[in-house]
Amino acid sequence: MHCPFCEEEDSRVVDSRIVEGGAAVRRRRECPRCQRRFTTYERYEQQPLRVIKKSGERELFNRQKILQGMLKACEKRPVTMEVLESLAGEIEKELRDEGYEEIPTSHIGEKVMEKLKEVDQVAYVRFASVYREFREIDQFLELLSTLNREKNTSERREVDEGKD
Ligand SMILES: [Zn+2]
Fold it and tell me: Ligand 1: distance of its center to the CA of 15 in Å?
C-alpha cells in the first residue's frame, strides 16, 4: 500500500495488534521516505450482511452502529472502548456464524443486551430500557420502584397479620 502522504511504495510496520476480538489486525506503518505514520487494518473478505429494520426496510449491516449504541449505554461507566470494540466484533462474528444473509434488528438488539449484561449491569439496564422502548430511564426506574413498593407492602401486611 502506498504512503498516503508521499506515495512511496514501501512502508515499515512499527506496531501490529490483533483487534476487534480477533477479527482484524491493526498495523501502524511508517514511511521510510517522509517518516510519517499511518494505520492499516487487515480483515477477512466477507459477504455483506443485511439488516431488516422494523419498517421492513433493508440496509447494510454496520458494526459502527452497534458500537455507538453500546457507547451510549456505557456513558460514564467503567467500560473501555477496547472491550466494546471486541463485543461488537463478537456480535458480528456470531451473526455471520448463524449463516443468515438478512437479520432482523430485534435479533441484533437481543445480542447486544446479552453482551452488556455480562459486562456492566447499569449499561445493560440503560440499553434495555431504550431498546424495549421505555421512553425515559426514569420511567423504567419508576416501574422498578413501584414493583418493589408493592412487594414490600404485601410482605409487611403478612407480618402484621401474623401478629394478630
Ligand atoms: Zn511517505
Answer: 17
CA of 136 to the centre of ligand 1 (A): 51
Nearest Cα to 70, choosing from 107, 105, 109? 109
Total tally of structural domains belonging to the chain: 1
CA of 26 to the centre of ligand 1 (A): 19
What does the pLDDT profile of the chain (164 residues) look like in tens digits?
Answer: 899 999 999 999 999 999 877 878 999 999 999 999 999 999 877 788 899 988 999 999 998 999 999 999 999 999 999 899 899 989 998 998 898 889 999 899 989 988 998 999 889 888 887 777 655 556 666 656 665 666 566 555 555 555 45
Residue 30 is assigned to a structural domain of this protein: yes
Domain coverage including residue 29 = 1-45
13 Cβ neighbours under 8 A, 6+ residues apart: 27, 28, 29
Tell me the whole-structure pTM to 2 decimals. Answer: 0.58
Please report, as a single letter, which amino acid is at residue 113: M
Is residue 145 domain-resident? Answer: no
